[in-house]
From TrEMBL:
Single GO MF descriptor: ADP-heptose-lipopolysaccharide heptosyltransferase activity
GO annotation, cellular component aspect: cytosol
PANTHER family: LIPOPOLYSACCHARIDE CORE HEPTOSYLTRANSFERASE OPSX, TETRAACYLDISACCHARIDE 4'-KINASE-RELATED
InterPro entries, A to Z: Glyco_trans_9, LPS_LOS_Heptosyltrfase
Name of the gene this protein is made from: opsX
Keyword field: Glycosyltransferase, Transferase
Lineage top rank: taxon: Bacteria
GO biological process, one term: lipopolysaccharide core region biosynthetic process
SUPFAM superfamilies the record matches: UDP-Glycosyltransferase/glycogen phosphorylase
Name assigned to this protein: Heptosyltransferase I
Amino acid sequence: MSQAFQLCILRLSAIGDVCHAVAMVTRIRQHRPDIKITWIIGKIEHQLLQGMLGVEFIVYDKKAGKKAKQEVRQALAGRTFDAMFVMQVALRANLLSTVVKAKRRIGFDWERSKEGHWLFTNERIEAQKYAHVLEGFMGFADKLGIPKDTDPRWDMPLDKTDWEWAKKQTAALGKYAVISPAASKAERNWTVHGYTAVAQNLIEKGYKVVLCGGPGPVDFEISVKILQTPDIIALNLVGQTSLKQMLAVLADAALVLAPDTGPAHMATTMGTPVVGLYAHSNFRRTGPYLSQELVASVYDVQIKSQKGKEWGYLPWGIRAKGKDLMTYLLVLTVLKKVDRALSELDTE
């Protein structure tokens, strides 16, 4: 009897990128359940995916420094994989990949091989023009000859307790929308005025508004400012949920409003419409994958102003610079996207 094909995936972070990777893993598992998958993942990201069927996780805690790399080495001692997906170009991830023994070390194409990424691989995925991050990740599955799906699917591991917790919190609300206002960098966040204006508009449309976010200082600071406007937030869950609990809350929302941050992609995995707010990065590459038409963005204008060329004539993925770019995103522009999202729900 032949031994099962052993695949190692290295993708440590971040939450959004890990969500994109789940779509690729789901595709592999559905078409090739015989492939044994081991995923080296960041500690925080593992909190979201822990319990995912058919996947063995090796957790890397970057805060542990050199000890973290040694722990991965020990966990994989004596093992050789048939293939490894080196799905992160950051130098730390590239160096970590050296503890994994694999016959095929598959990395990104030349254009995306930054920080010496190509030195740590012996094969590359096909180059893709104007590819979303999720589509780029699918290139790894293509390399193994995995059949393609028409649309991506996500096998997100939510426990019964997570669903029960979320429903208990939101049971009295009826229809609700979620605002997840904070990205990891404050410059990516929209204005407090903008968030409160949208919240008031949602209330007028018959929706309660739930505030979601992590426990970090950026999340806390902007949520406090939003809450200063009375009677617009029905439920404040900022810093009050696990990642899985937040995922369950996002899953039952009518829509999610968020800047370039993890919860936008978490909501996408559950099929919830996302009104994404963008200025610094090209939403065509990093925006919520199933809600591209709902994105409100000033990226195109800002990048042309800074570089003198439209985005299609610039390197793919180039970012616009500036701490106040999100202030150029008008409330009216966002409200039009919210209206479109809700009207599409009404027609379903």
